[in-house]
Amino acid sequence: MADSAIVQKLDSKLIEDGILDRAFEEDYSLVHHKLNDEIRKTGKSAQPEQNFELGEKILREWLHGLARQGASQEKLTSYLRCGLAHLSYDSIESANEGLETSDIDELIGRTLVSFKNRDFERSFFRLNDGDKTVVQKVAAKKKAATKKAAKKKAAKKKVAKKKAAKKKAAPKKKKTVKKKVAKKKPASKKKVAKKKSPKKKSAKKKAKKK
Contact, 104 vs 6, CB < 8 A? Predict the structure, then answer.
């Protein structure tokens, strides 16, 4: 079984060479775990090529299942290449049992040569008829859901426009402003100067003359 640390290093080399998409880098460990678990269940054959064929069959069946769940072709192509690199490493490791396990770089180098000699870097995942039918159904459901959501949105907009139009059409009520009536101040009483009576003045004049 391929060690996780080694195959991660192999993934990094494939990403550097542009063979694996960096966007799915965190997902590749899932591919390695899947293959290790399934091959462990079936048991390893003495023939590396038989193990490779069995592993490839398991890999492709799993990928077709993911395709039916709506996984993109770009993702599935990267998963396929990652899985084929994993199986290539298993095959090289089995064929070079005498090689020291500490010499990981040598094993990875030989794996990359084997991988490229088989043209696996040009491999693409292709949907079969069963996948296409399921994918079409999923796409049709998504399309219907999108249309439904668009209709609801349009209906809400219409209601909002009608409400806005009603508000504009309605006459504005004039606010009645109560006028403050100024209180009349009581008229101030003017002080009237007392006039000296003419009679008294004339009496005083007469007294002086005498």
Answer: yes
Reported residue count of the chain is 210
**Domain-by-domain residue ranges, the chain?**
4-137
Mean pLDDT by 10 residues, the chain (210 residues): 85 96 96 92 80 94 95 96 96 78 84 95 89 64 74 82 75 57 56 50 50
- Regarding pTM above 0.70, the answer is no
d(CA 163, CA 45): 75
Distance CA 73, CA 15 (A): 18
DSSP letters for 90-107 = HHHHHHTTTS-TT-HHHH
How far does the chain reach from its first CA to its final CA, in angstroms?
162
